[in-house]
Design brief:
The chain has about 375 residues and is an alpha+beta fold. It is about 50% helix and about 10% strand.
Length: about 375
């Protein structure tokens, strides 16, 4: 046999073995069977599970969409009507029309098409100083550009919280004349004594920002210092922090980055409000003298926003006659945001209206029904 013949024979033998091995491998391959759609399972949403467990807690907490069939306490109805009325009237200085049209011509055209501009802008006879309108526009433009940068660059929650703080500052929160201060409570815990209880679930959640009645303000100091002297260990809020536990809190903001989980935000906001309402109920019980009155339906509501990226959604929380907590929202007519200059101006007006209600109606109720009885 010459070398060519031997080579051919060897090649044929190798080819035959390869074919045999391939056939054997094919015959021994695993047979995959498709899984029927009905047997496929996805991991359950942890936030949906927590929302379900909160409904079974003591007291229960339900997050509900605003609906005519859900009875609202008189204080909630009055607050809602006041806020809607404020935002449905003229809230933007007439002299800013030109700047708004230049900054966002598409939205301005929508306003004109649907006749919204006649309700948004003040009457031309209402005159503001140039320094006021220039300052208002500069703040609005600053907020818009910071929010746009967060959105375009997919920045994290901490960057969005800076935007939220600037919005709140623009509504005069934190000025010497304001009874309210913005506090970061991201690292602060809610006292477990005031949390809803569940047999298998802990609801120890934290929130981002809270509006506190400041002890630096003369009216607040005059009201709470005698209470603190008479009750040195008594907490006036649901928090465990050395400072925020000593001042009343009534409004919370939970912030998420663009694309963040609204369900998680509303859980954190709802639990914070539920604990605050429970603390408020306990304080009223300590200071009241007419034990025959029903407590829950007379408690003022707690307020809050979930902020997910540009979108600010307003919620109102209260206790029903059974002591359970309702978190109602979002209120479509009260939603605002930072996606345009006009939205920011509307948002500022809403925050100022909430600030006015807290400093007047809520504070008056707090002094009359809680603080005066604890001195």
């Amino acid at each position: 046999m010459n070398s060519d013949t031997a080579s051919n024979a060897s090649g044929e033998t190798t080819s035959t073995r390869a074919t045999a091995t391939s056939a054997t491998s094919f015959q021994n391959r695993p047979i995959l069977h498709p899984t029927p759609p009905s047997s496929r399972q996805r991991s359950p949403s942890p936030t949906r599970k927590v929302l379900s467990q909160l409904r079974l807690a003591t007291p229960s907490l339900r997050v509900c969409q605003p609906d005519v069939r859900l009875e609202q306490p008189p204080a909630v109805r009055r607050l809602r009507s006041m806020l809607i009325k404020k935002l449905s009237s003229e809230v933007i200085p007439h002299s800013l029309q030109t700047r708004l049209q230049a900054a966002d011509p598409d939205q301005f055209e929508v306003f004109q098409t649907f006749g919204a501009s006649s309700h948004l802008f003040e009457d031309p006879t209402v005159v503001h100083t140039a320094s006021y309108t220039d300052g208002l526009w500069q703040m609005t433009d600053k907020i818009y550009n910071e929010a746009r940068r967060c959105y375009d660059n997919h920045l994290d929650e901490s960057a969005w919280i800076k935007v939220v703080n600037n919005v709140l500052e623009s509504a005069e929160l934190g000025q010497d004349s304001s009874m309210l201060r913005v506090h970061s409570i991201q690292t602060q815990s809610v006292d477990p004594a005031f949390l809803p209880k569940h047999i298998s679930q802990s609801f120890a959640k934290k929130a981002d920002l809270a509006l506190a009645f400041s002890s630096d303000h003369p009216m607040v100091a005059t009201a709470i210092e005698p209470v603190q002297k008479a009750n040195p260990d008594l907490a006036l809020s649901q928090m465990t922090d050395a400072y925020t536990s000593t001042v009343p809190l009534a409004c919370c903001l939970e912030v998420k980055e663009r694309g963040g989980d609204y369900n998680e935000a509303i859980i954190q906001l709802g639990i914070w409000c539920a604990a605050g309402l429970e603390r408020l109920r306990g304080l009223w019980m300590l200071g009241r003298t007419d034990s025959g009155r029903s407590l829950e339906k007379e408690l003022p509501p707690f307020l809050g926003w979930t902020v997910v990226g540009h979108d600010w959604k307003f919620h109102i929380s209260w206790k029903d006659e059974g002591g359970n907590v309702i978190v109602l929202g979002p209120w479509r007519s009260l939603n605002a945001g930072t996606g345009s200059h006009a939205e920011i101006l509307i948002l500022m007006a809403l925050i100022r209206a909430v600030k006015e209600w807290l400093e007047q109606e809520y504070w008056a109720w707090m002094c009359r029904n809680v603080l005066d009885g604890l001195k």
